[in-house]
Specification:
- By secondary structure, this protein is of the alpha+beta class.
- Helix content is 16%, strand content 23%.
- The protein has ten helices and 34 strands.
- Strands 3, 5, 6, 7, 8, 12, 15, 18, 20 and 21 form a ten-stranded mixed beta sheet that branches. Strands 22-23-24-26-25 form a five-stranded antiparallel beta sheet, sandwiched between helices.
- The two termini are 50 Å apart.
């Protein structure tokens, strides 16, 4: 592969020329797409070949890189006069100042933020500050899509501890490609000042004064610790391959000599020829050989918000803005590549709702292909059975491993939920939602084909299956991933989608234990903007059901929040949410856990495998989050976005000890627990379906409209599975 030499271009820009892969290469570009397709063309140089390992296409808001307001120009008066929407950008550096690595799992747009320490010229002149809870996202300014809270909540600050009156700059030196203009985005959040108007500083680019007497409080409506981003453009092409960025105290306001920066993004801008690479070989320009072959790859530009296509060496990430007529925001619909492999992209309808299975033709898989994938539904490949039917492990012709759910004609779930599952999963693509590969409805079959999830369900790793126990960090990361998926469902479209069956059996784990929410058969589109709820028959699973929804038959996003709160306690205590074999006061996990939480003794009932491994403040934050989710009334519960933030904070509190030097006696951790309190029955009435897109429980509610509460609880043990 090292001998490959090729170019890559889009419809409007040359992204790479004379490119060779020296080792592991990840290239990230931001493109404005004003058509229905994003076409990527790989052109081998004469006598060579082109290849790629993976491509990710991520849809972003139009406002992420915008000419309104126009960015400042370094070394010149006035603002940038060109249109940023006509430019292509290559991300060269993305730094989390004063903080640690931020992975795609912890960024709304799946970006990676590197720590800045490796780029500081004199580390002794700088110090780091972390106050993530202090960050305020002020309406009209930066959002968590501009940069995550973990970036705005940390900063690199002047280290003036030894000499408060010293005047010096803190400088970073970064590698860049000469001959190009650069777009720089600085992220600021004053987390160091005790009050407004105490921080004034200067910003320098390559020794040029870029911004003078910067007072952050004036940019965010006089809000302390308000998140703010500032864009700059280097107007003249760089002549060297180094760029220096410096911050230093104001020479005018000298009462508080200090300077900070929270994050920095540096992006290369295309030149006048539309190129982001200065290689000699340009597609369509004749090149070294007249026998070149252009390999075109068409990727749907209406992707939203994430599409990952696994192809065959370098990895490319594209952040695409899809222009819509008179409207900013996300593109709504993506119809994935054909299952048969005849194409790698297709156009989706412009509607946001699918009304019939026939609108999802690109998902349809021939029955013969399903039979071939499962070896004619060989019982040796049967990995479980649920209310919908049997589940088989299979493999498509292209090697993709799948989980195949074949509907039972006698199933109570039937066509309605089959249709709902297809409609929901064909509208949304997200790294924390299980992917629908396709479906089959030939010969009156109801077959759903999902991506195969190697590590099964969260529930299977908590109790009843004999699978290895999860560490506390793993559990936190799994809860964070599931919360991200649910948050996307609630906020990713003009109308929220309510899952309605959130439980540990419907949170699946891939080979890396990344969580994905599954089983959308009961999902419901949320209320219109002028409504507060959706009136609907009660459906869900015992133990997870929102009592307010049960009483009033009024469904909101907060019903999912309640169910997720039960999942949080389930993850912490590693026991069934309903266990009739236990003493009466312990049967219902939510009630039992809330009792101990209100006594301030929740640590007495946590999973014994976690003892000695949880920091008290991490447990406290986690437990407080779960408690708020279980508030009696939906209006008192947090949004899923708030839940997500608190879980990320709980993880940071835990890692503050894990990443440091632990004490020998582990006094910072929750100690040994009295074994008799946590001696749960390991009986489990569910059917384990490891590695599938669902786990089917024999404790679900089908339709409880008009059923009394006493009758519900009389059926806890013998109810039929969904």
């Amino acid at each position: 592969m090292g001998s490959a030499k090729f170019a890559v271009s889009s419809q409007t820009h040359v992204l790479l020329s004379d490119f060779t892969v020296k080792s592991r290469d990840v290239k990230e570009y931001s493109l404005n797409v004003d058509t229905d397709d994003l076409v990527l063309t790989f052109t081998p140089s004469g006598g060579s070949f082109a290849f790629v390992n993976a491509i990710e296409v991520i849809s972003v808001p139009d406002s992420l890189i915008s000419s309104s307001p126009p960015p400042r120009v370094v070394g010149a008066s006035g603002a940038f006069q060109g249109s940023l929407s006509s430019h292509a950008f290559e991300t060269i550096h993305r730094l989390n100042m004063g903080g640690s690595l931020v992975t795609p799992n912890n960024d709304t747009l799946t970006r990676t933020w590197q720590p800045d320490s490796g780029f500081l010229l004199e580390k002794n002149l700088a110090k780091t500050v972390s106050k993530i809870p202090s960050v305020n996202f002020v309406p009209g300014y930066a959002t968590d899509e501009t940069a995550p809270k973990t970036v705005y909540g940390t900063c690199t600050e002047m280290n003036s501890d030894q000499n408060p009156n010293a005047i010096f700059n803190v400088t970073w030196e970064l590698d860049v490609d000469p001959g190009f203009q650069y777009f720089l985005r600085f992220h600021f959040c004053d987390i160091v000042s005790l009050s407004l108007n105490q921080l004034y500083f200067n910003l320098y680019i390559d020794s040029m004064l870029a911004v003078t007497d910067l007072d952050l409080s004036t940019y965010v409506d006089n809000t302390l610790a308000g998140a703010y981003s500032m864009d700059l453009v280097m107007p003249s092409p760089k002549s060297s391959n180094k760029m220096r960025v410096s911050i230093g105290p104001s020479t005018v306001h000298t009462d508080y000599p200090n300077a900070i920066v929270n994050g920095l993004e540096i992006m290369k801008m295309n030149n006048s020829r539309g190129q982001l690479s200065d290689g000699a070989f340009v597609p369509g320009g004749g090149g070294p050989s007249t026998k070149q072959k252009n390999v075109g790859l068409i990727v749907g530009a209406t992707v939203g918000p994430l599409l990952a296509l696994a192809l065959l060496g370098a990895c490319f990430v594209f952040f695409c803005k899809k222009r819509k007529r008179g409207q900013d925001g996300y593109s709504k619909t993506w119809m994935p590549f054909s299952i048969t492999g005849t194409s790698v992209g297709s156009k989706g309808s412009r509607g946001t709702t699918l009304t019939s299975i026939t609108t999802n033709a690109n998902y349809r898989i021939p029955f013969a292909a399903v039979k071939d994938a499962t070896n004619n539904f060989d019982e040796s490949r049967n990995i479980g059975v649920g209310g919908f039917g049997k589940v088989y492990k299979g493999e498509l012709n292209d090697g993709t491993r799948v989980a195949v759910k074949r509907g039972n004609p006698k199933s109570q779930q039937g066509l309605a939920e089959f249709r709902t599952e297809i409609e929901m999963l064909s509208q949304f693509r997200h790294r924390h939602l299980v992917s629908l590969i396709g479906y089959c409805d030939e010969n009156n079959e109801m077959i759903l084909v999902y991506e195969y999830m190697e590590n099964g369900t969260v529930k299977g790793h908590l109790y009843g299956s004999g699978l290895p126990s999860l560490t506390w960090k793993q559990r936190l990361e799994i809860c964070i991933g599931a919360a991200r998926g649910l948050h996307y469902l609630h906020t990713g479209d003009s109308k929220p989608v309510i899952h309605r069956d959130v439980k540990s059996a419907n949170i699946l784990l891939d080979e890396n234990f990344m969580a994905k929410v599954a089983d959308f058969g009961l999902s419901k589109t949320g209320p219109e903007l002028d409504q507060t709820h959706v009136s609907t028959a009660v459906k869900g699973s015992f133990g997870y059901l929102d009592p307010e929804y049960f009483r009033r038959q009024q469904l909101t996003e907060k019903s999912d929040v309640y169910s997720f709160g039960v999942v949080l306690f389930e993850v912490l205590c590693a026991r069934p949410v309903i266990d009739p074999t236990l003493p009466r006061e312990m049967v219902n996990l939510a009630e039992w856990a809330m009792k101990w939480q209100k006594k301030g003794q929740l640590d007495q009932i946590i999973d014994q495998s976690l003892r000695g491994n949880i920091r008290p403040d991490s447990l406290r934050k986690f437990a407080e989050t779960a408690e708020k989710c279980l508030a009696d009334y939906g209006v008192d519960r947090p949004s899923m976005g708030d839940v997500l933030w608190n879980l990320e904070y709980a993880l940071q509190l835990q890692e503050a000890v894990v990443d440091g030097e632990p004490e020998d006696n582990s006094t910072n951790m929750i100690g040994d627990l009295p074994p008799q309190i946590n001696n749960f029955s390991q009986g489990d009435t569910s059917v384990n379906v490891p590695g599938t897109a669902g786990r089917f429980e024999e404790s679900s509610i089908d339709d409880l409209s008009g059923v009394s509460m006493s009758k519900v609880f009389s059926q806890l043990v013998k109810s039929e599975g969904r």
